[in-house]
Amino acid sequence: MAGNDQESKVPLKLLIDGKNKRVIAAEANKDFVDILFSFLTFPIGTIIRLTNNNQSMPKIPTCMNNLYKSVENLSVNHLYTENCKSILLNPRNPCIEDCFKLKVKIDDSVSNKYFKCSNDNCSNKSWLVNVTCSCEGKTSKEIFSDVKNPTNDYLGVFIKGGIEFIISDDLRVLPGSPISLVQLFSDLGYNHMNHIREMFVEVGKAEMIWKSNLCVLHQVLVYSKN
């Protein structure tokens, strides 16, 4: 694969019930688990936006999707300020600079963009444009903070290296060990490994966005049709 962010992928070993054609669990390194854990830092609005912007992914009709679309369609005349729509539709992730270090970058937000106060003697800045500063100036000067790209030998984001992890299909994450794997299989009703086979895959941005959408929306929120 090419080396740009959108084409970056992480390896994953799937453990599959060949008889019932079901993925039981996966084995992965810290790169994949870091991405999974980063889901917890994402605002729901970000997950909805990323999913909706990916035309290759099926759309899940949820209450939150309807809520997001309502804000998109709402005239700014009904909002307290014009920036309110940006805050709701493009919420900022406070951990985004850490998420820049992920092997596969999910959130495409421009995190290092700020607006500095128009008063040259004031150093205040905001994520939002044209906000009235305490000095009566306006945050109108576009600036960018420094974001350091990770080196090839970076130690990770949330997880230490040197260990594999087991991830169940419902996203329970356990340190990899024979005991953990046997316990997981036992919890799922598997007393032997006769029908279990392995499959090696690579997972990229589109698959991870879809997974985050399923976790946060499909399995948690109520379908609007119900």
From TrEMBL:
InterPro entries associated with the record: DUF674
Protein name as annotated: Uncharacterized protein
